[in-house]
Amino acid sequence: MADFFLGADVGSVSTNVVALDDQKQLCAKVYLRTGGRPLAALIDGVRAIQKTIGPSARVAGMGATGSGRLLAGCLLGADVVKNEITAHAAAALTTEPSVGTILEIGGQDSKIIFLRQGTVVDFAMNTVCAAGTGSFLDRQAARLNVPIEKFGQYALLSRQPVRIAGRCAVFAESDMVHKQQMGHTLPDIVRGLCEAIVRNYINNLAKGKKIEPAVVFQGGVAANAGIVEEFKRQLGCDVVVPRHYDVMGALGSALLAYEVMERKAGGQATSFVGFDRLHRDYDARSVECDDCVNACEVIELRADGGLVSCWGDRCGKWSAVLAKGQEPSLFARTERDQGSRGEGLKLGAQRAEKD
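Above: the chain sequence. Below: its structure as tokens.
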């Protein structure tokens, strides 16, 4: 029976899950909209992967990345949990071993990663403004009544692109409305937006740093032919779009899991919890711990009413809750304290009425 290695990338806009065989070849992938429900999207994604690779498939390793990587790691029992920079670099190197620069535009943020001789030496992220991200393009496509799948094709039909202010999502949208009212054609406006997005990306993220080939473009926005052509034009070099551009984060996390499990001595078993555990009733809750001035927002994951894990605390008091064995749930303690305070207030009010 062949071994499979899973990778999950849980983001704010999309949740992606992939499966590699024991030759590190991608044999299944799932791309889902997170829809504000990362827990449900992750479970749906892994179940869909199971249907593809078979119900009796043996998982030998599991990796997690993305903004929801801690959630994925705890829920699935990941062997390796890494940030998006590491995961995207690992995936790009398998596609283009000579990669020097990775351009990545996702649903909610953008990244640029610089590599030298297969090692990440620098990176930058844009998380302040949504201008140029996938969610921004989705919104503009809907407003212009253009299917997002054809957005890039419209850009390639342009004869004279208009100049759009691309440094801010609000200004870009208002500028597009103004250009429409002035009578510019839809292809010219779409191409102008693509130009603005690439110009903003290079100016804000590269910031004068040398973009060396090979240049690899990853993330959902890589499906936009207009953006790809603009990167080629403004950078003056070829831009490689990988076959699995849309799930490169998940692919990278699966590759990292493969490497970790390969290095483990004695064929140590994976930490993956198994597909059967996905049929349990999961619930994630958060509360602000008031034990100290840090006021950490702690997340507690429960399955069928039982505690699975905690994270988000700076001191480690609650994230180590399972290791301590007898440590009470933060939420149980909080609810108990709130109940005690409530009883105290009630008794105080009764005494005040008597006085």
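The CA atoms of residues 12 and 163 lie 30 Å apart.
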